[in-house]
Amino acid sequence: QKEVEQNSGPLSVPEGAIASLNCTYSDRGSQSFFWYRQYSGKSPELIMFIYSNGDKEDGRFTAQLNKASQYVSLLIRDSQPSDSATYLCAVNTGTASKLTFGTGTRLQVTL
Amino acid sequence: NAGVMQNPRHLVRRRGQEARLRCSPMKGHSHVYWYRQLPEEGLKFMVYLQKENIIDESGMPKERFSAEFPKEGPSILRIQQVVRGDSAAYFCASSPPGSSGQPQHFGDGTRLSIL
Question: In the predicted model, is pLDDT for residue A2 greater than 80?
Answer without folding.
Answer: no
